[in-house]
Design a protein that fits this description.
This protein has 282 residues and is α/β, with parallel strands linked by helices. The protein has a single domain, classed as Vaccinia Virus protein VP39 (Rossmann fold). Helices cover 30% and strands 27% of the residues. The strands form two sheets. It has an eight-stranded mixed sheet with strand order 4-7-6-5-8-9-11-10. Strands 1-2-3 form a three-stranded antiparallel sheet, with no helix packed on it. The longest helix is centred in the first third of the chain and has 15 residues. The protein starts with 13 loop residues before the first strand and ends in a 9-residue tail after the last strand. It binds zinc ion. Zinc ion binds next to loops.
Length: 282
């Protein structure tokens, strides 16, 4: 059995040689790296949506420098605290990118001897390819968080790290009493980098924290100061949404700036899936 369901008919997908197959005969090949592409054509996105290979490689280089390790450590700490007392914990990373956080989370849970299963989805095929090529203990699929190819009530924890909040889908795939960990940029996140590019950089706004089907149970922050320069600073800039909005000269500014010191901050919002009220079906 795989973690996934058929995106066409929603039946369970089972592993059959190098494919995932449902009982209605829909078949999806496992790529050489071990991931499966379950993304259906949709007018909401282009034929190959999400980060390009260049963006994915920038992200991997930057993350593997260890400069965001404090965020990974904080995530690991939150997940292991939520896993306490569980026999086995199933984690769905919706927007897994190139897999850095999931890879370190696996190592952490193994060290603590917590029994786990992790699967990751991303809309970017290049991101999933890079993730599956490196982190063999995790199941990866190309898929949209707006149409998650997973049965209802199948995850104990959903991760959404700087990815879109899709509360109805997250709620659907979570088990009763499951948790959603939603990581968002803190108010001063990357302020120094923004100062290097913009004349009038602005702070991030605090996210609205109310989502249907969820109750906010905790809010943890991880923050620090890092120094980047040259191509590493460019890699970091490419990971941000500002990159898409900026002119090419922004990249030159960063490249020529020399050392850039910047604050970094992630806020981890922890939500519990709300119990359905008994009168809901009346
Ligand atoms: Zn099917």
């Amino acid at each position: 059995m795989s973690h996934f369901i058929c995106p066409k008919c929603k039946e369970q997908l089972n592993i059959n040689a190098n494919s995932l197959v449902c009982k209605n005969g829909h078949s999806f090949d496992l790529a050489r790296q071990g991931y499966v592409n379950l993304l259906m054509p949709n007018k909401r996105h282009s034929a190959s949506p999400g980060d390009s290979r260049e963006m994915v490689m920038s992200r991997r280089r930057f993350l593997e420098s260890g400069k965001y390790e404090i965020f990974s450590d904080k995530l690991n700490e939150i997940v292991s605290a939520l896993s306490e007392g569980s026999q086995k914990i199933t984690i769905a990373d919706c927007g897994c990118g190139e897999g850095y956080y999931d890879g370190r989370l696996c190592e952490h849970l193994q060290k603590l001897k917590i029994n786990y299963g992790i699967f990751g989805l991303d809309i970017s095929k290049e991101a999933v390819k890079a993730a599956a090529g490196k982190y063999k203990q995790i199941s990866f699929a190309v898929a949209s968080a707006f149409d998650i190819p997973v049965k209802e009530n199948s995850a104990d924890i959903v991760l959404a790290i700087f990815s879109p909040m899709v509360e109805n889908e997250f709620c659907r795939i979570l088990k009763p009493n499951g948790y959603l960990i939603y990581a968002v940029p803190g108010v001063r996140h990357l302020m120094g980098l923004k100062e290097a590019v913009y004349d009038e950089p602005y702070e991030n706004t605090e996210k609205d924290t109310l989502y249907e089907g969820f109750r906010l149970t905790d809010r943890r922050s991880a923050a620090g100061v890092i120094t980047v320069s040259g191509e590493e600073a460019v890699d970091l800039f490419k990971m941000t949404p500002y990159y898409y909005k900026s002119e090419l000269s922004a990249i030159d500014k960063i490249r020529l700036k020399g050392e850039i010191e910047t604050e970094i901050q992630f806020d981890f919002l922890v939500y519990k899936k709300e119990e359905r009220k008994s009168n809901e079906n009346i």
